[in-house]
Structures are given as structure tokens and as C-alpha cells.
């Protein structure tokens, strides 16, 4: 259990950490399509890519907001803004408390903005301070960072601890059933990583789910409450199928974004440690971001009788009994990917690690272009 | 949650009162701009200080109750946990007819169980208390700076007064032989004109002497006033510092507590849900009760921390003058009462006597 994590309380480390993240999120924005790639149809792939890209943008906003919240860490006395807590062992991302706290801060934002001085006033005071006292106006900078943080919370879509489910209607093959794509996201509290969920479901209810004020709130609540990384996809899908007899999950995907490894910030295995340390001589080359996509597909459905005259449709999921990892994870397919700059990639290739052979690798080239290496 | 809102309201009201009282004393020290002995407020008597102390004591006890009042929120958690572990009355009833049906009802309930709202509530409430304490801390520090600045100024004035006093005494001492000499000469002289001249001179010297003695008394009085003021100012700075330390201890404790609670309760719910659904064996009961015990022990530690802080201060001012020490001793006693009050609050809570008159 990541109770405390690592507390970053000095300014250069804190800014370096967020600097690294903003570089990484810039690179992965374009990879949304790869993260959700669906073989079934081009339209579906594009839709999923769009959704994932939206979440990545929100995640990037959340990290930027945190970087502003902790901008003055280590530079001003007093208790605020305090140290930034990250999970430096498993995920490399900020501890989930930071994200939960942000939701709490967002609730206070209107009253805060009313009290905090305006940007223009702060800028004038800064000029005044610089001219007369000839020292950095730390307290004013702190006030400014709080102002900007609150403004961000109020204006920008953020990736919060829980991002409620949304529904996209899909075209239907069968006139009896309607298709929906449901998506939601959580910041997983057990592993301190963002999780994005995508579920294609068939709807055989009388009213379509998008307009059903009775079922939809229940569905949304159920899905968020079940979004634990410790639950297998199979458990989630089966539970959902059971609780909502006229909704039939066809495909359930879970994207685990992370862990992120950064040299000198996170603790990781010796191999990663060595590779990142060797790539240290050139700035911006010492990080790796991994992600995993789990997919569960239905391969058919069967009628289960629930009484003398009634029966209910139960989905049967496609899990290859010969694949131990998939059986263990309760998923049809697991795809692991990583993105890293070219220098650590070269070190990686030199070592030819067998455990990384199944991992799809994306490499950031010297000019920032992304090359794909299977 | 009506109780919590009321408690917050009460605490805010008390803090406002405390701030008014504290500010009154501070402005008595630091308010007057004229740096003259006559304008110094010498009427800051023990009573004023004690009044503030007594009020702070009551206020802090209230805040301690507020912090323990967070348990109201956490009580919500244990209900959720119990609900996840046990069957509801309906499920038990259904279980008489079909245990499968009862299990499936329970499984359905667990699938939608979530404590995220409670967690958010806990964090929100904790933030509210921290914000109150934070404002109080800021006020205290501001006042401390004010009083210290004024104190520094007064110390300089006192130095000046002492120097003046010494100069006066030196002049007085120099006058004494002159007067004796004149008196001798008057007694020996027989020429009336000479005698009159010497007597005039002696009268002048005596006038000067009297003037000097008078201004010595005035300067001495001024110096004493300043000294008294400095002693009281020091005591007040100590008091402010002590209050600030208490606020910091409370803030720190509250934040740590909330952080730990969030982590533990979140992990607890999630492992319960996972275990129930994926049949992983977990010994969860111990985690839950252990948390509460730790939280209670931690609350008791607040009292102890405040106490040791005061002991440090007593030592640091070992060489202070008797008066100041006496006030400090009084303060230590008050603080002891304060610590005891904390202990009582904790004890009350432990025994579940909460809300009953003690």
C-alpha cells in the first residue's frame, strides 16, 4: 500500500519532475490512436482514439495544474504550498491524495478566487517589490501561483479521481438492439495510475440508454464503483451483465497509463536504472513511460433460465485457456507498450532483454518524431 | 452533519473573539506610535493576559473536539465496511428461502458500494478546520512581529534612559564636593560681601542639585516603566509564540490524520470489494480497528507535544526576572490544564461519552 510515497520539497526537483511529465504528455498525445486500436472497424478506432485523446488532454491539464500548485515549493517559508507527494516506486505519478485533494480544492475555487488578488494587481505589486526592495517577490509569486491554480481548476477540464461515465450512441446492426460506447476514467488509488475504461455494449431495453433516466444513473454509478484495478475485467463485465439484464457488454477495455520511470526520481529495477543512468549524459533522454491495454471481448451469448418461463441473455467471453497470463488477468488480450527516447532505446536493444520482447516500443527520435518498433 | 457545521461555526466565533482579545492586548503594546514613557500602557495587568489565556484554552479544546468530530464522518466509513461484510436484514430473510438468491443480492450490493463520497467529505471537512487554524496562525504571527518590533524599539529607549540616568548620577556626584567646598568656605569667611556672593553661588548649586535629583527620579521612573513594559512584552511574545505552536501542532496532526485515514479507508474498501468478488482471503477486521486506536493515541500526543513545548520555553527564559517568570509559571499551569483538557476530550471520546455532560 503506497501510504506515503516520496515527498518532493525542493524547487528544482519538483519543477524537473513536472517538466519531464509535460514532455512525456506532449509525446503521447499523438499516440492515442495506438492506445485504443480496435480491429473491428476504422470508425470505432477513430472514435476510441478521440476519447482517449480527450482523457490524455485532461490528464495533462491535471499535471499542469499540480505543477502550478507546487510551483513555489521550497522557495517560500511557511507551510504552503508544502511538498509534492509522488509514488516513486510503482507508478512515478503523483499520489492519488494529490488528485483527490484537487477535487476538494475545486469545490472551494469560487470562494478562493473571490479572496485572492487579481493577476494585474499582483503584477503591479511585483514590479513595485522588484524596484524598491531589489529581491525576488516570493510571497507575491506564491499568491500568483495560487491564483493561476484556482483559475485553472475553474476553467480547464481536469482528470480527477473519478471522471463520470459518458455515453456515445453507435450505429446498430440489429434493429432489436442498440449499440453504445460507454467511457469513464478513474485515478486508480491502489497503484496511483490513471485508468481509462471503454465499454461497447448492446442495449435491448425498451428505451435507449441515452434517454433512460432510470437505468443510466444506476449504470454510471455501478461502473465507477467497480473501477478498481484489482478487479479483473471479467469480474467487472460479468457483474455488470448480471446487474443489468438488458445491457450486454461486448467489449471492455482498460488502459493503464504508466508507470513512468525517470532517472533519479523513481525507484525501479536494476536494468531500467542502468539504462536510464547511461542515458543521463544528454538532457531529456532519461525517461520511460509504459502503458497496458487489457481487452475483453464477448464471443457469443447464451440463454440462462432464471425461472420456469423466463430466461436471460448472458454473455460468454473469449479467453484463451491456453494463455496463462490472459486467464490470470481475466482478459482476452493484454497489450503492453512503452515509449522512450532513442538513447535509452539503443541501450535496451544492445541488451536484448527477453522480458521486453512482447512489449511494443515507441521511440522518440532526435527531432521529436515518433518511430514505432514492434 | 448539522453537528459539524455547528461546531465549525462555534469554533469560528470563538476564534474571532480570541483574535479580538489578542489584538486588544497587542495594540496595547504596539499600537501607540509615540515613543514616550508617559504614553506607555502600564495597565496591561495579569488579568488581561490571563483572560486571553483562558479564552484560548477553551477555544483550543473546542477545536480539539472539532478534530475528533471528524470521527462522525469516519463513523460513516465503518458503517459502510460493516455493510460490506454482513448481510442486510432483507438478505438474511431471503436467505431462509434461497441462499443463492441472498448471496446474489449481497453481491449486487457490494458491486455498487463506494466510499468515495465519504472520502471527499472527510477531506473537505478537514480542509475547513485547517483553513480556520491557518487563519488564526497567520494572525498570531503577524501580531508577534508587531509586538517584537515595538519591543525592540522600547529596548533601545530603555538603553537611552539608563544612559541618561548614569549621566545624571555622574553630574550629581560631581556636584557634591563643590557644595561641600562652598559650605566650608562660607563658614570660614567673615567678609559679608564675599559671604553673600558665596551663599548665592551655593543656592544656585543647590537648585541645580535639586533639579538633577528631580530629573533622576523622573528618568528612573521612566526606566522602570520601560522595564516593566519590556517584561510584559516578552511574556506576551512568548504567549503568542506558544499559541502559534499549538496551532501548528493541530494543523500538522489533522493533516497527517486525514492523509492516513484516506489511504487506509480507501485501501480497506477496495480490498473488501475485491475480496468479496474475487474470493481472495483478507484479514481486514484488524486493519480497521487498529486504525481507530492509532488515531486516538495520536490525539493524546497533541497534548503532550504542547506541554513539552512550554517546558522548552520555560528553560529558555531561565534568567528572566521574577515577575515574568511568575506569569510564565501561571501560563504553564494554564497550559497544563489545557493539555489535561485535551486528554479529557480524548478520554470522553474513547469511552463513547461524547455529547454527555462530564
Describe the model.
- The complex is a heterodimer of chains A (374) and B (358).
- Chain A is an alpha+beta fold.
- Chain A has helices at 11-29, 32-35, 42-69, 96-107, 109-115, 119-133, 138-155, 215-225, 233-243, 270-278, 324-329, 342-351, and strands spanning 6-8, 84-86, 162-170, 178-188, 193-203, 247-262, 287-305, 311-317, 333-341, 360-364, 370-373.
- Chain A has 2 domains: 6-155, no CATH class; 162-373.
- In chain A, a hairpin with a 5-residue loop joins strand 7 and strand 8.
- In chain A, helix 1 (11-29) runs antiparallel to helix 3 (42-69) and helix 6 runs antiparallel to helix 7 (138-155).
- Chain B has 358 residues and is an all-alpha fold.
- Chain B has one domain (2-155, 228-350).
- Chain B is built from 9 helices and no strands.
- The longest helix of chain B is centred in the middle third of the chain and has 87 residues, at 192-278.
- The radius of gyration of chain B is 34 Å and the shape is rod-shaped.
- Classes of the chains: A alpha+beta (374), B mainly alpha (358).
- The A-B interface holds A 1-3, 79, 96-97, 100-101, 103-104, 107-108, 161-162, 189-190, 218, 221-222, 224-226, 228, 230-232, 235, 239, 242-243 and B 104, 107-108, 111-114, 116, 119-120, 123-124, 127, 134, 248, 251, 259-260, 262-263, 266-267, 270-271, 273-274, 277-278.
Amino acid at each position: 500500500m503506497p501510504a506515503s510515497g516520496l515527498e518532493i520539497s525542493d524547487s528544482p526537483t519538483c519543477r524537473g519532475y513536472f517538466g519531464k511529465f509535460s514532455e512525456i504528455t506532449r509525446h503521447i498525445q499523438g499516440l492515442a490512436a495506438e492506445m485504443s486500436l480496435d480491429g473491428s472497424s476504422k470508425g470505432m478506432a477513430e472514435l476510441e482514439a478521440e476519447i482517449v485523446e480527450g482523457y490524455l488532454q485532461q490528464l495533462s491539464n491535471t499535471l499542469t495544474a499540480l505543477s502550478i500548485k507546487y510551483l513555489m515549493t521550497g522557495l517560500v517559508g511557511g507551510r504552503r504550498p508544502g511538498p509534492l507527494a509522488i509514488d516513486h516506486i510503482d507508478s512515478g505519478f503523483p499520489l492519488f491524495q494529490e488528485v483527490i485533494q484537487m477535487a476538494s480544492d475545486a469545490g472551494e475555487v469560487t470562494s478562493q478566487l473571490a479572496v485572492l488578488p487579481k493577476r494585474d494587481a499582483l503584477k503591479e505589486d511585483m514590479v513595485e517589490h522588484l524596484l524598491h526592495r531589489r529581491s525576488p517577490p516570493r510571497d507575491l509569486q506564491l499568491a500568483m501561483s495560487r491564483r493561476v491554480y484556482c483559475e485553472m481548476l475553474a476553467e480547464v477540464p481536469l482528470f480527477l479521481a473519478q471522471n463520470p461515465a459518458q455515453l456515445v450512441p453507435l450505429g446498430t446492426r440489429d434493429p432489436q438492439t442498440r449499440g453504445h460506447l460507454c467511457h469513464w476514467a478513474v485515478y486508480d488509488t491502489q497503484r496511483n495510475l490513471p485508468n481509462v475504461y471503454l465499454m461497447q455494449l448492446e442495449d435491448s431495453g425498451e428505451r435507449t440508454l441515452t434517454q433512460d433516466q432510470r437505468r443510466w444513473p444506476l449504470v454510471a454509478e455501478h461502473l465507477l464503483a467497480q473501477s478498481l484495478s484489482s478487479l479483473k475485467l471479467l469480474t467487472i463485465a460479468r457483474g455488470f451483465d448480471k446487474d443489468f439484464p438488458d445491457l450486454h457488454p461486448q467489449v471492455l477495455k482498460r488502459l493503464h497509463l504508466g508507470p513512468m520511470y525517470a532517472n533519479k526520481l523513481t525507484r525501479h529495477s536494476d536494468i531500467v536504472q542502468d539504462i536510464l543512468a547511461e542515458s543521463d549524459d544528454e538532457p531529456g533522454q532519461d525517461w520511460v513511460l509504459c502503458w497496458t491495454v487489457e481487452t475483453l471481448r464477448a464471443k457469443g451469448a447464451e440463454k440462462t433460465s432464471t425461472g420456469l418461463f423466463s430466461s436471460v441473455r448472458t454473455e460468454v467471453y473469449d479467453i484463451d485457456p491456453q494463455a496463462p497470463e490472459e486467464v490470470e488477468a481475466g482478459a482476452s488480450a493484454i497489450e503492453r507498450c512503452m515509449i522512450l527516447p532513442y538513447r535509452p532505446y539503443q541501450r535496451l536493444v544492445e541488451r536484448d532483454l527477453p522480458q521486453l520482447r512482447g512489449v511494443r516500443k515507441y521511440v522518440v527520435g532526435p527531432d521529436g518524431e515518433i518511430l514505432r518498433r514492434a | 452533519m448539522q453537528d459539524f457545521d455547528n461546531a465549525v461555526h462555534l469554533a469560528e466565533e470563538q476564534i474571532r473573539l480570541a483574535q479580538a482579545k489578542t489584538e486588544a492586548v497587542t495594540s496595547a503594546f504596539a499600537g501607540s506610535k509615540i515613543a514616550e514613557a508617559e504614553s506607555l500602557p502600564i495597565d496591561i495587568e495579569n488579568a488581561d493576559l490571563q483572560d486571553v489565556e483562558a479564552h484560548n484554552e477553551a477555544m483550543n479544546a473546542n477545536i480539539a473536539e472539532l478534530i475528533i468530530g471528524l470521527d462522525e464522518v469516519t463513523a460513516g466509513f465503518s458503517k459502510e465496511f460493516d455493510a460490506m461484510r454482513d448481510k442486510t436484514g432483507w438478505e438474511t430473510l431471503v436467505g431462509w428461502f434461497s441462499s443463492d438468491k441472498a448471496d446474489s443480492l449481497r453481491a449486487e450490493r457490494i458491486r455498487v458500494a463506494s466510499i468515495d463520497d465519504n472520502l471527499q467529505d472527510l477531506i473537505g471537512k478537514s480542509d475547513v478546520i485547517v483553513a480556520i487554524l491557518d487563519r488564526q496562525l497567520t494572525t498570531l504571527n503577524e501580531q508577534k512581529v508587531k509586538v517584537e518590533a515595538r519591543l525592540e524599539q522600547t529596548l533601545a529607549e530603555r538603553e537611552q534612559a539608563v544612559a541618561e540616568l548614569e549621566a545624571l548620577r555622574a553630574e550629581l556626584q560631581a556636584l557634591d564636593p563643590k557644595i561641600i567646598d562652598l559650605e566650608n568656605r562660607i563658614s570660614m569667611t567673615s567678609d559679608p560681601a564675599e559671604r553673600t556672593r558665596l551663599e548665592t553661588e551655593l543656592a544656585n548649586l543647590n537648585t541645580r542639585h535639586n533639579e538633577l535629583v528631580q530629573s533622576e527620579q523622573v528618568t528612573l521612573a521612566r526606566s522602570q516603566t520601560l522595564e516593566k513594559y519590556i517584561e510584559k512584552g516578552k511574556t506576551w511574545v512568548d504567549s503568542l509564540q506558544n499559541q502559534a505552536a499549538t496551532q501548528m501542532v493541530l494543523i500538522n496532526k489533522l493533516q497527517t490524520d486525514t492523509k492516513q485515514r484516506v489511504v487506509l479507508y480507501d485501501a480497506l474498501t477496495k480490498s473488501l470489494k475485491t475480496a468479496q468478488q474475487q474470493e481472495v482471503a483478507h484479514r481486514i477486521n484488524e486493519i480497521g480497528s487498529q486504525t481507530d486506536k492509532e488515531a486516538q493515541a495520536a490525539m493524546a500526543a497533541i497534548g503532550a507535544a504542547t506541554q513539552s513545548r512550554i517546558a522548552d520555553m520555560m528553560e529558555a527564559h531561565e534568567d528572566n526576572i521574577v515577575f515574568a517568570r511568575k506569569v510564565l509559571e501561571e501560563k504553564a499551569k494554564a497550559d497544563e490544564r489545557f493539555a489535561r483538557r485535551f486528554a479529557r476530550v480524548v478520554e470522553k471520546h474513547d469511552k463513547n461519552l461524547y455529547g454527555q455532560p462530564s
